[in-house]
Design a protein that fits this description.
Order of helices and strands: EEEEEEHHHHHHEHEEEHEEHEEEEEEH
Helix content: 10-25%
Structural class: alpha+beta
Largest sheet: 7 strands, antiparallel
Distance between the termini: 20 Å
Strand content: 15-25%
Amino acid sequence: MCRLLLFVLPVLTACTTHHPIAQVRVDFDRAGETRVWAAGQADVAGARPATADDPVRIASISKLVVAIGVMRLVEEGRLDLDADISDRLGYSVRNPAFPDTPVTLRLLLSHRSSLTDNVDYAIPLGARIAHTLADPKAWDAEHAPGAFFRYTNLNFPVIASVMEAATGDRFDRLMTRLVLEPLKLDACYNWPGCSDAALARAVALYDGEGKPVRDDLGGRRPECPVVPAADGSCDLTRWKAAENGALFSPQGGLRISARDLARIGRLLLNDGALDDVRLLSPASVATITGPEWRFDGANGQTDKGFYCTYGLAMQTLPTAQSRCRDDLFGDGRARFGHAGEAYGLRSGLWIDRAAGTGVAFFATGIPDSDPGKASAFTAAEENLARRR
């Protein structure tokens, strides 16, 4: 069945087998926005229309923004991509099956650390990430660090812990100082750093059946912005630097609007500069882009062809390999960026460097079974990516 989709600019029609609850897309070039489109509801209970200014839990695109923060600290000389993170954390971080092979930020950012998500990476307040890393189940016993790509959320709480160890700052506040505030973004990890006005516009996340599962806040700040302690308490004065980098969800907890996400895209498109702010050097942007890994048929897990070329928290599309199905846009053009998926949300930030253009988008209420017709991405992502 066809439905009418209302654009901020043109009015178009489209046919789809599933109706997302909210959809937003912002197109941009090096100079600014070129088109903005929004449809559906940011909050069903409040009947609030979705807009490009509404912050949403953008899922794994959060990792790409973390990489920008890491590279700022590298440029400041406070972090080294290739140093053993054990030296910074003050205890040994090793895959028990490969005790002589160090783990580095480069390996963590490129998902080649040999860590796995076979343990819980949502580590509660008061717990220590060192205990999680000491569990043999956290590690891939068959592949040494650097030898194999396995997309792993746990990498990013470890990265956040290293960032805290290097600076003494809490991860969410550190990211505000390093990235969000210089770019004039009203964005935050797990809500404490966002304004009241942004929180009032929060996008609720719904599963494929329309049930609210995250950020159905009704304009109120969450009672606890982190996973509470084992006793149910939420006393953030207990925070200690580098004890638990998982607290503010570096792997997926960034709340940011599509409009502000497009500004991140413009920063990368302009080789580290946005408007009058130089945040990163062109060399640092090139380092993030990579690639660090490309699928050769046996050197990593591709998630049915979804991941095939990867830098430092940066995907590159498409990959010319028979088992890769990562041509999201269906035109064979090279793009870099990242996808996001969690709690019924699908999101994307994709940049076409040759054309000097990019797009930031998200959709909510997407079921797990929403296969794309021409790629390993969902139909919702294909529809948003290929909309002209």
